[in-house]
Amino acid sequence: MKKATGQLCGSRQTAEFYVNPADGTAILDHNHHSLKDLPWDIPVSGTIYGTALNYKGALAALGESVNEPPYQAPPKAPILYIKPANTIISCGMPIPLPEDITEVEIGAALGIVIGRTAVRVDEEQAESYIAGYTVVNDVSIPHESVYRPAVMQKCRDGFCPVGPWVIDRKAVTNPDDLNVRVFINGELKQSNNTNNLIRPVSRLISDVTEFMTLNAGDVLLVGVPENAPLAKKGDIVRIEIDEVGVLENHIASEKELVKEAVR
C-alpha cells in the first residue's frame, strides 16, 4: 500500500490514507474499499495545465507538417494550454457528451501535482517541487489543427476527470518509466509509457517554470500519447497508470445530464 491524499464528497478537507494503485483499493478508517465504494471528490485545487506534443509519437504523427507554415519547425518550448475549472470532475462522475458530437478522444495523462511555488527551477532540483502524481483524462473533441487554441474542443464542461487521489511522489519509483493504459468497456485500447516523453518530468517542470510560475496545488500534465482512443455515449472509460492509480468514468449525454440536474 502507498501513501496518498484525496477528498471524499461531503468532506471539507483533504485526507491522507493508503491505497493500492494497481487495483484502485483504499484503506479508510481501517477498512478496505474498492474504487466504486467511495464518493470521490476532486483531489486537486489549482490550475491544470496541459502539454501538447510531448510524446515522441504524437509529434512524429504530424510528419512534415511541423516544418510548414505557420511555424516551419518543430516546437522549441513546451506547448501549454489550460483545462479550466468547468472541465474538472472527479473519478466516477459522468463525462458529458455534447449533443452534436458522437465520440470524444480519451487523453490519458500523468498529472504532476506541484507542492510549492516553482520559479526557474533547475532540472536537478525539480523533483523536490513535486507533491505527488495523479491520473487525468484530458478529454477532447477530435480535431486536426494544433496551431490554434482548441478551446471549443478541449474546454467543454466535464472534459477533465482527475483522480481518484494524489499519490505521494516518494511512492513512485520513476515517473519517467510508467505504463499508461486506456480501457474502454474493459477492452485495452491504448498502451504507452512515459519513457516516450520528449521532455521527461523534471525537464518539463524546469522548462515551464523558466517563463511562468507554478503554484502549490497546480497540476502539470506531461502530455497525451498518440492515437488517443475514441469513446461514445454509454462507454466506460478506465485509465491506469502504474504506481499512480486508476481513473474510471462513463460517457453520458450532456442533454440528459442537464435535464437530471434541473429536476
CATH C-level name: Alpha Beta
Q: On the 0-100 scale, what is the average pLDDT?
A: 93
For the termini, the CA-CA separation is: 41 Å
CATH architecture: Alpha-Beta Complex
Cα gyration radius (Å): 18 Å
Total strands: the figure is 18
How large a portion of the residues is in β-strands, by DSSP E?
35-45%
Overall number of structural domains = 1
The global form is globular
CATH fold group: Fumarylacetoacetate hydrolase, domain 2
> Low-confidence runs (pLDDT<50, min 5 residues)?
none
Structural class: mainly beta
Order of helices and strands: EEEEEHEEEEEEHEEEHEEEEH
Q: Helix amount, in percent? A: 10-25%
CATH level 4 superfamily:
Fumarylacetoacetase-like, C-terminal domain
Number of helices: 4
- Let me know the largest β-sheet: 11 strands, mixed
Protein name: 5-oxopent-3-ene-1,2,5-tricarboxylate decarboxylase/2-hydroxyhepta-2,4-diene-1,7-dioate isomerase
GO molecular function, one term: 5-oxopent-3-ene-1,2,5-tricarboxylate decarboxylase activity
EC number: 4.1.1.68, 5.3.3.-
Organism: Scopulibacillus daqui
